[in-house]
Amino acid sequence: MNSRILLNMGLFIFLALTLLFFIDKKNDDKNIQRLSSLSLEKIETIHIPRKNNTGILFIKNNNNIWDMRKPYKIKAHQFRIKTLLKLTQTPVEKKLNTETLNLTDYALDPPRARIIFNTTEIAFGKNNPVNSKRYLLAENKMLMLLDQAYPLVSAQAASFVDLSLVPDNFELLKIQTPVADIKLRNDKTWESTGSIFLNTDQIQTLIQNWKSAQAFAVHKYMPRNNLGELKISSKTKTLIFKITDDDPWLILALPDIGIEYHLDKPLKNTLSGISPKDTPDA
User: Fold this and answer.
1) CB under 8 Å to 243, separation ≥6 — which residues?
2) Which of 25, 51, 71, 98 is most exposed by smallest CB count within 10 Å?
3) How far apart are CA 205 and CA 115, in angstroms?
4) Where are the membrane-spanning stretches (predicted)?
5) HSE-up of 53 (CA within 13 Å, CB side)?
6) Helices (DSSP H) in the chain: which residue ranges?
7) The pTM of the whole model exceeds 0.90
8) What angle do CA 155, 257, 222 make, to 5 degrees?
């Protein structure tokens, strides 16, 4: 038997084994019990009920981007939404019928937290002291999972807000800061006024700084100091960020929406159009 025949036989055996592996894996995936029977692509709304009608509502828009509708009307933090969605597909070892169970014993009646995907509700109970897993109720079945989703479901609404300062599809046409003022003229050239003049390169840097700026956290708005304003405008909308603190970090508030962005302190100068050479210590 020559080497070519041996090589072909080897390739055939390899392909056959590979095919069997993927068939077995596909069958195994079908046999895995998941927390819910929901299909991810069919989930259009997520509701986290809270006391006193302070729940959180997310809706998937036509571009498959998740927006928060309550309590704030703003783009949602996409990664955290995906984390919530993954909960529905979590593999579970065992599901228990609830007919013979007293759900109160597991803090599931009433539950400690709830989340609703479309119309499918998942309730969170207490932790099992033996294995530190949390009791959950989904589709009339009780199960236990590692306590990973509960802290997120219990988090404040502002923690689900997107960290970017500039909304999607927001064309920056004007930026006003305490020291700089730039706007796009009708002839598509930029005009710079204010106490600090910005040349073309500096203007583009300022625009890019705004587009790339992200907070490290978003919180519910809390009145603080009045240290000035930063304004950005598109053709149809103006956002006015109130500078309410700048030490130990920068806080930019949107009181009308009810949130505040917490950012690294150096971004105060970066977003104001102040370069290092313009600072007193330069």
Assistant:
1) 226, 227, 228, 229, 230, 250, 251, 252, 253, 268
2) 51
3) 42
4) 6-23
5) 0
6) 3-31, 78-87, 150-153, 200-212, 267-272
7) no
8) 65
Domain with CATH 2.60.40 in the chain: 163-278
Length of the chain: 282
What is the C-alpha to C-alpha distance for residues 36 and 80, in angstroms, rounded to an integer? Answer: 19
Query: CB-based burial of residue 180 (10 Å sphere; 0-12 exposed, 13-18 middle, 19+ buried)?
Result: buried
What DSSP designation does 111 have? B
pLDDT for residue 281 is more than 70: no
For residues 23 and 32, give the distance between their C-alpha atoms in angstroms, rounded to a whole number: 15
Distances in Å between the Cα of 105 and the Cα atoms of 47, 100, 109, 137, 234 are 25, 12, 8, 13, 55
User: What pLDDT digit, counting tens, does each position of 93-135 carry?
Assistant: 889 999 989 999 999 999 999 999 999 999 999 999 999 899 9
In CATH, what class is 163-278?
mainly beta
